[in-house]
Design brief:
- The protein is of the alpha+beta class.
- Helix content is 14%, strand content 34%.
- The protein contains 14 helices and 31 strands.
- Strands 7, 8, 9, 10, 11, 12, 13 and 14 form an eight-stranded mixed beta sheet that branches. Strands 23, 24, 28, 29, 30 and 31 form a six-stranded antiparallel beta sheet that branches.
- A hairpin with a 2-residue loop joins strand 1 and strand 2.
- The longest helix is centred in the C-terminal third of the chain and has 15 residues.
- The radius of gyration is 36 Å and the shape is elongated.
- It starts with 6 loop residues before the first helix and ends with a helix.
Length: 653
C-alpha cells in the first residue's frame, strides 16, 4: 500500500478541500488521542503521516463514532475526502471532516518527521541563490557603521509560501548611503501564516459588502472569523430567567442559508434590547457570532452547532436576491405520526379544521399563567390530530388563522398526551408556496370538506379544550373495561354523556375551601389559607396575612349513563357551570338559610351533561384509589344529539 507522496506538504498549503477538489490524499494515522470533553462533546487529536512527514490534526465531532467503535485506531490508513486547514499558535492543524478507511496495518509506515520543522531552518534558508556568497553581502567593517539588517530567529515558525525571501545582496549598504538603513525589524514571535484566521468559505459566494460567505454547513468550533448570510425563518418571544447566578432575558432566532442548513442563534441581555425590534422573520441578514456546540435539549435545528450574539455583534440587513428559500420543510403525513418517536420535532402541513377557545392555565412548576389553544388538523391521509399552541401563538390563533385553511407548522413536538398529539411550533406559515399546498387545497375542496368518516389520533384533550365529538365519546363502563388511569402518571381522559344522581353537599362549613384572596403570583386566588387566632387568614404560599378570604367550590358526586355509574370530583369552574354561575362566595353569604343553600344542589340533580373527565390512580392514606375528576362539562344540545344519532344509525345499517 502506498501513501500519497509529499501529501503532507501539499495539504498544509491548502485552505480546505475546496481549494483542490481532486486532491484526495491517503495518509496514515500514526496517533489518535482524546484531548478533552468540552460541553459534553469528546474531541480527538490525530497525527497524519505520508511516510516522510507528519502534521497535527483533529477529528470533527461527526467522526467520533469511528474512534469509539475502533473503526479507526493508531496506524490506520485513511483517504481524506474533506478537510479544512487552520493555524493554531502558528502551527498547522488539519481538521478532518470526512474520511474513508483504506487499510489497518499493524506498524508505522516510514520514519516521518514534523513538517513544521522541515519547513523551518536557520537564516541561510531565507537567502536567495544570488546572495549565498558572503562576498556579496555588505560588511559593517567596510562601511564603518553597523547596518540595521533584521536578525532572523532560527526558531521562529515560518512559511516559505507566505514570506518572501530576504535577499541581502539587494539591500543598500550603509557605507554607500552614509546613513543607517531603516529596514523594518521583524518580530520573530509573530505568526507568519496568514491562514490562521481564514474560515472555510464558499468561494462562489460573497455578501453585498464583498466579504466571503461561510455556509452554515461548514461552520465548526475551530473558526475565529466567519460571516454567514441567512434568512430569519423564526423568532421566539423574549424569555426571562432568574437563578443564583443572576437574572436576565433572551430570545432566539432560526437562520436558514442557501445550503438548506438551519442553525439557532440566541441573543442575551443587552443584545435583546438591541436586536429584538430590528430582526424580523423573512429578513436576510449577514453576521458573525460565537460558535458553540448545540444543546439538543433546546435546539431543533439541523446544525450540530448554535450561535450566540452579544451587544457588540454586528448584524447587517442584506438584499433578498432570492438565492435563499423562504422556508425549508421536512414534511410528515399525519397518518405517519403514530410511528414517530415521542419527543421528536416534525414539520406538518395540514388543513386547520377547527380552532378552540384560548385556555388559561397556571404552571405547577413556576406558578406562572400560561395560555393555550387547541387546533384540529387534518391532511389528505384522512387522519386528524390535535395541535396545542402556547403563549402569543395561542392568544392570536383565531386572528392569524381562519379555519379552514392550509397551514404549515414548523418543528412541532410529537407527544403521547391523549393518544398522539402535537405541541408548540417554532413558526407557522399560511399557504406556503410549495407543491404540497396546492395538492392539499385540491383534496380539501374535492373530498376533505365533505365531512366523510375520519380517524383521529388524539383523544379528547385534558384540561378543558373543545367539547368532544359524538364519535369520540365512550361510556362510563369503559373506565374499568380499558383499565384507564392505571398506566399513565398524568391520567387518562375520556368523554361521555351522563346525568348527576347524587351531590355531596353536607360537608361541615359548606361544600368549598377557603382560598387566598391574592390574585397575583404565586397564589392567583387558588391556594388554601387557614384562619389564625386573631381572625385573619394566613397563606403559606405567599406568606401573606389577609382580613378576608375567597371561597372555591369543591365536592363530589355520582354520575350515571346507560353503561354504569361512577364517583366524580367537582371543582370550582365546573361547579359554577353546574350551578348556573353561582360562586361559592355567593352561596356562603346565604349559608345561614339552609333551604337556599340546598336549592343550588337540588336544581343540579338529574341534569344531563357532556362530561370530560380525567381518570387517575392516587394514593390516599397508603391506599391506592382510582379518582375521576370532571375537567369540562357542556350542556347537551338535543337537536345536534339527534342528528348525530341518526347519522350513526345510518352508518351501521
Amino acid at each position: 500500500m502506498s501513501l500519497t507522496a509529499d501529501g503532507i506538504r501539499t495539504i498544509v498549503s491548502l485552505t480546505s478541500s475546496g481549494s483542490n477538489k481532486t486532491f484526495k490524499p491517503v495518509f496514515q494515522l500514526i496517533s489518535i488521542k482524546a484531548v478533552g470533553n468540552k460541553n459534553g462533546v469528546q474531541r480527538y487529536r490525530a497525527v497524519l503521516s505520508d511516510g516522510s512527514h507528519f502534521v497535527q490534526g483533529m477529528l470533527a465531532t461527526q467522526l467520533n463514532h469511528m474512534v469509539q467503535s475502533n473503526e479507526i485506531q493508531n496506524n490506520t490508513v485513511i483517504s481524506v475526502e474533506d478537510f479544512m486547514n487552520n493555524s493554531v499558535q502558528g502551527r498547522n492543524v488539519i481538521i478532518l471532516l470526512k474520511i474513508t478507511v483504506v487499510d489497518k496495518p499493524e506498524t508505522r509506515i516510514g520514519s516521518p518527521t514534523d513538517i513544521e520543522k522541515a519547513d523551518s531552518s536557520p537564516a541561510p534558508a531565507f537567502v536567495s541563490s544570488n546572495a549565498e556568497k558572503s562576498s556579496n553581502m555588505p560588511s559593517a567593517a567596510n562601511s564603518g557603521k553597523s547596518t540595521n539588517v533584521p536578525r532572523v530567529n532560527p526558531y521562529s515558525p515560518t512559511d516559505k509560501r507566505q514570506t518572501a525571501p530576504i535577499v541581502y545582496s539587494n539591500m543598500p549598504s550603509a557605507a554607500n548611503s552614509g546613513k543607517s538603513t531603516n529596514v523594518p525589524r521583524v518580530n520573530p514571535y509573530s505568526p507568519t501564516d496568514k491562514r490562521q484566521t481564514a474560515p472555510i468559505v464558499h468561494q462562489a459566494s460573497s455578501s453585498s459588502s464583498g466579504n466571503p460567505i461561510t455556509l452554515i454547513a461548514q461552520l465548526n468550533m475551530f473558526q475565529n472569523r466567519w460571516t454567514i448570510k441567512a434568512r430569519v425563518v423564526s423568532k421566539s418571544e423574549i424569555r426571562t430567567w432568574s437563578n443564583a447566578r443572576g437574572e436576565g432575558s433572551l430570545f432566539s432566532i432560526e437562520l436558514l442559508d442557501s445550503s438548506g442548513m438551519d442553525i439557532k442563534a440566541t441573543m442575551f441581555k443587552e443584545a435583546v434590547d438591541k436586536f429584538y425590534n430590528l430582526i424580523e422573520v423573512g429578513q436576510v441578514i449577514r453576521s458573525g457570532g460565537r460558535i458553540k456546540v448545540a444543546n439538543l435539549q433546546y435546539n431543533t435545528c439541523k446544525s450540530q452547532f448554535e450561535l450566540n450574539f452579544d451587544q457588540n455583534s454586528i448584524i447587517r440587513l442584506e438584499d433578498d436576491t432570492g438565492d435563499i428559500q423562504a422556508q425549508s420543510f421536512d414534511l410528515v403525513k399525519i397518518s405517519d405520526l403514530e410511528k414517530a418517536e415521542v419527543g421528536k420535532n416534525v414539520d406538518i402541513i395540514a388543513v386547520v379544521q377547527e380552532i378552540g377557545d384560548v385556555q388559561t392555565l397556571t404552571s405547577k412548576k413556576s406558578g406562572r399563567e400560561l395560555q393555550k389553544c387547541d387546533l384540529t388538523l387534518i391532511d389528505d391521509s384522512g387522519v386528524q390530530v390535535r395541535l396545542t399552541l402556547w403563549g402569543n401563538q395561542a392568544s392570536n390563533a383565531k386572528n392569524d388563522i381562519v379555519a379552514p385553511r392550509v397551514v404549515a407548522f414548523r418543528k412541532t413536538r410529537v407527544g403521547d398526551f391523549g393518544g398522539v398529539s402535537l405541541s408548540g411550533a417554532s413558526g407557522f406559515f399560511l399557504e406556503p408556496k410549495i407543491p404540497e399546498t396546492e395538492a392539499l387545497m385540491q383534496w380539501w375542496e374535492s373530498e376533505g370538506s365533505s365531512g366523510g368518516a375520519v380517524r383521529s389520533l388524539s383523544k379528547s384533550s385534558g384540561g378543558g379544550g373543545k367539547m368532544a365529538l359524538f364519535q369520540e365519546r365512550k361510556g362510563i363502563a369503559d373506565i374499568k373495561k380499558e383499565g384507564l388511569g392505571y398506566n399513565n402518571e398524568k391520567g387518562d381522559y375520556l368523554s361521555f354523556k351522563a346525568h348527576f344522581t347524587f351531590l355531596k353537599k353536607d360537608k361541615e362549613g359548606g361544600a368549598w375551601y377557603t382560598a387566598c384572596p391574592n390574585k397575583e403570583d404565586p397564589c392567583r386566588n387558588r391556594c388554601k389559607v387557614v384562619q389564625t387566632t386573631d381572625g385573619n387568614w394566613q397563606c403559606d404560599r405567599c406568606q401573606g396575612t389577609y382580613p378576608n378570604c375567597s371561597r372555591k367550590w369543591i365536592f363530589s358526586g355520582t354520575v350515571a349513563d346507560d353503561t354504569g355509574s361512577t364517583w366524580v370530583s367537582v371543582f370550582d369552574d365546573q361547579a359554577m357551570t353546574l350551578f348556573g354561575g353561582t360562586t361559592a362566595d355567593d352561596a356562603f353569604a346565604q349559608y345561614d338559610n339552609q333551604d337556599v343553600y340546598d336549592s343550588h344542589f337540588a336544581k343540579a340533580m338529574h341534569t344531563e351533561w357532556i362530561l370530560k373527565c380525567r381518570v387517575k390512580q392516587e394514593t390516599v392514606n397508603d391506599e391506592a384509589r382510582l379518582k375521576t375528576q370532571i375537567v369540562r362539562m357542556d350542556p347537551v344540545d338535543y337537536v345536534a344529539e339527534c342528528r348525530d344519532l341518526l347519522s350513526a344509525i345510518q352508518k351501521v345499517s
